[in-house]
Design brief:
The structure is a homodimer of 428-residue chains. The first copy, chain A, has 428 residues and is α/β, with parallel strands linked by helices. Helix content of chain A is 41%, strand content 14%. In chain A, α1 runs antiparallel to α13, α7 packs across α8 and α11 crosses α13. Chains A and B meet through α4, α5, α9 and α10 of A and α4, α5, α9 and α10 of B. Chains A, B: Keywords: Aminotransferase, Transferase.
């Protein structure tokens, strides 16, 4: 197909009128479609329905340590839940704390605690002139809203196919003591679906932070969320790498079962060094008497162990894979060769990242909405909601049914084409 | 019985040697008993085992608003859970947010948010020279550790049979802009088991705080935790009183089902004005995508409504009442007339508050421990763990079995007698 930029004004106007006709048709259907959030579909949730049966009124509700999970006690998680989530995030059970239902909440609490109490004895961040976080972009909007909420200055770090631009990361972290953290989604990243290379992880572990209270916020949200059995990304385990490099306390790993069992009713955890854990537990002891042990037990009794969880994730993949392929095939078929957008074919995670022509993302999202398709807001993948290129759009294919998804992708592709033609015509 | 203070030195020494013999006997048994925490017994937890069956793999898991409770969505609680907990805490469902499993966690988060972001636009407390909280004493240790953790200065306010000394409360709140809060357990208070009088609640509502961001932290932990059907305390509903007096935003009400269903696996809530709720929800939206809706649904399907919950609490009372009566009868029988201690006979809640002769509490708790009985640490009911009189001891009769409780109370009474005799002998 001839690239749009190489077509004449007349050819483009001709193409536009054909596309407008199609768009009118689909708009007339009055559809309501949603590709905005990384939300599992009902079919995926059905996979875990057995979890509703594993505990009943006849069940022994004591955990392996003999504690009655119905009562108070056990601040940092029952042993078997620690083992399961430690395996999930590839650390020792001695390096983990089990929290409530949300890893986002752990991240929020971690930043909040650093604001009021510092990190392992450092000055509370609220007493400092300036606190900065590095933000690989595009990235996860909810990370950025946490740091924005606390008045932390966010610095964009461009993502490469190997992860964040490590030259820049090293420059900032190793020289500026105001840089206290970096937000990372290291595997099947949000939104690119790409995985940090071995070299990137090792360069992270070798950082020499100017700030003693600098930490890597390693949100391994999609660690076991593969789409394929035969094509899987591998991520070097960072806690051990940091230990090897003499920086055992430099990383917080976050994970949860939100997209394994039930979003909102899963179990979340932090994995980090024992020194960090001890410091965190001191504060936790004031915050709560303990998290929901029955739900921890429910998860362990259902999945049994990491092998059970991995098998369960294969079932998720069977539902998700065709959805990703529907979108990717449509993008390839409809946009291939037009040179009006780039995208990455992910092997896992929840998203497809699409880069439109500069200055087109907002208009594309608005156009799609006209036809009843809600996308993630353009700019959401950047700190302060500002994409300097107005180019990135996050596609979330998980929630719609396959039929809805085919229509949704058609609308998206039509919107991309129409907005791109207008943009190119401006400069003809 | 002749009061110890009126007995001769010889009579006291004679009594002491008899008591020491008894103490030796019980100590020889090598018992391990615990009256330290307000922890429900296994028999009480058994009452809610039906809750493990109400949701199963065949259940419709949509809430009344049609939302699939297994998925993301609904930040502030499903409608039917709001209705149940609103009834429990006597506010409108429009005045409530449902959180996770712990009201303590809500209180912690509320103080933490005020530190970093202030209250509805006020200066963040971490930017202030000095922040103070009023602490009715004796009170709940975990309240005091929260304020201590954030470096908030705590001011003791003596409790009277009608609640906190309101002359003092008014003096501080209405004149000192550094006073930002007061910790209250207004009904079946921890540890006294007494309830604020109507006049006390009205005086709270009529406060004219010097600080715009002053709030009453109303921890109604035992609102429906009656011991008797025929003798029940009544507490005036404070949110409405504050509204009537033109201070609609002045109170946060906290409640949870921790001692209704399962501690650690219950549902907690905050009830307050819509203006406060809006402010809180803005922050909540950054902290979490939502709490555990399945557990909210589980609670509503099990209790059905407030009537169901009240009936359920009658079953708790049937288990707790004889335990309280065992302790109270023993205190009356063994200590009555000796003038070595005072206590209140509560009609609800989880505790009996015992005031020993000044300077005796620590020694009594240590003595009891010698014989294998763990009590709440003396001083724990005061800010910074410092009881200026060294007099107050909190008795928690809920956890031991009735048989254990009879022995535990014997040990306690023996310890009180022995330590008191020594104290009186010092001055003879």
């Amino acid at each position: 197909m001839t690239a749009y930029k190489d077509r004449s004004r007349e050819e483009l106007l001709q193409e536009k009128s054909v596309l407008e006709e199609k768009f009118k048709e689909v708009k007339a259907k009055g559809l309501k479609l949603d590709m905005s959030r990384g939300k599992p579909s009902a079919a995926q949730l059905d996979l875990a329905m057995g979890m509703m049966d594993v505990l009943n009124s006849e069940t022994d509700l004591k955990c392996s340590e003999g504690v009655d999970c119905r009562n108070y006690g056990v601040l940092d998680g029952i042993r078997e839940a620690k083992e399961l989530l430690a395996d999930m995030t590839e650390v020792s059970p001695d390096n983990i704390i089990i929290y409530g239902n949300s890893s986002l909440n752990i991240m929020y609490d971690t930043v909040s605690r650093s604001m009021t109490h510092g990190v392992m004895g450092s000055t509370p961040w609220c007493k400092l002139e300036k606190v900065k976080f590095l933000c690989p972009v595009p990235g996860y909007d909810r990370h950025f809203t946490i740091t924005e909420h606390f008045g932390i200055e966010m610095i964009n770090i461009p993502m490469t196919p190997d992860g964040p631009d490590m030259d820049l990361v090293e420059k900032y972290v190793n020289n500026d003591p105001a840089v206290k953290g970096i937000w990372c989604v290291p595997k099947y990243s949000n939104p690119q679906g790409s995985t940090y290379s071995d070299e990137t992880v090792r360069r992270f572990a070798r950082l020499n932070p100017a700030a003693e209270d600098f930490r890597i916020y390693w949100d391994n949200a999609y660690g076991i969320h593969h789409l394929y059995d035969d094509k899987q990304d591998n991520l070097v385990e960072i806690l051990m790498e940091c230990k090897k490099e003499g920086h055992p306390d430099m990383v917080y790993k976050f994970c949860s079962t939100s997209k394994v069992s039930f979003p909102g009713s899963g179990v979340a955890a932090i994995g980090t060094s024992k020194a960090n854990l001890e410091y965190i537990k001191k504060q936790m002891a004031m915050q709560t008497i303990g998290h929901d042990k029955l739900n921890q037990l429910r998860h362990v009794r259902f999945f049994k162990d990491i092998h059970g969880m991995v098998q369960h994730m294969r079932k998720h993949a069977e539902i998700l894979r065709p959805k990703f392929e529907t979108v990717l095939n449509c993008l390839k078929h409809e946009l291939g060769g037009l040179e009006i957008g780039n995208w990455i074919e992910p092997r896992g995670g929840y998203f497809i990242s699409f880069d439109a022509l500069p200055g087109c993302a907002k208009d594309i999202v608005a156009k799609a909405k006209e036809a009843g398709l809600v996308m993630t807001g353009a700019g959401a993948t950047f700190p302060y909601g500002k994409d300097p290129q107005d180019s990135n759009i996050r596609i979330a294919p998980s929630y719609p049914t396959p039929e809805e998804l085919a229509i949704a992708t058609d609308i998206f592709v039509l919107s991309v084409k129409l907005v791109s033609i207008d943009k190119i015509l401006e400069n003809k």
